[in-house]
Amino acid sequence: MGAGWVGYHPQRILTLFARAVDAHIGLGRLSSDAPEAADALRAVRAARMHLEDGLLAHVQRIVRSDVLLTPVPAAPLRSVVADDIAELARTVLGGDGDALDELHELVSRHGDDAWAMREVFAELGGRGTADLLATLGSRFDPDDAAALAIAESLRRSLGDVSTMLGVPTPTFADDLIARCVELRAEADVNTAATLSFVLRSGYLSTDLRAGLVGALLDHERASREREDTAWPGGLSMGSVLNLEVPDDDLWMVDDPRYAAMASLAADGDAARAIFTDPSRVDELVSGRTWDDGLRGLLAAGAAASQVPADARPDVQEQAAVAATQLVNRVGGADLLMGHRLDPQAAESAATVLSVHMLAVQATVSLGRGEVSADELDSPELATVPEDSFGRDFRVAIAVFGTTPLAGFTRLAASAESGVATLRAGLSTYQAGRADGTARVLADDPPSNPGEYLDEAMFQSGELEGYFVEHVGHEAERQGRSRDSTMERWIDIGTLSLWRAEDAVDDWGAVEVPFLSETLRPAAAIAKRAWADHEAGAARNAEHNAIAASDRLTYQYYEALVAHGVMEPPSGVSSLPPFEGFEALPMARRIEIWTDLVERFPAAGEVSPNGGVVELSLKTQQLPYYQELD
Amino acid sequence: MSIESEELRRRTVELRRLAEAIERTPLMTLDRDVGPDTWRSPAADDCRAQLSRDQLDLHRAAEDLRWSAYRLEREADELDVLEVLEAAARMVGA
Question: Which of A29, A44, A53 to mutate to test the interface with B (most CBs of B within 10 A)?
Answer without folding.
Answer: A44
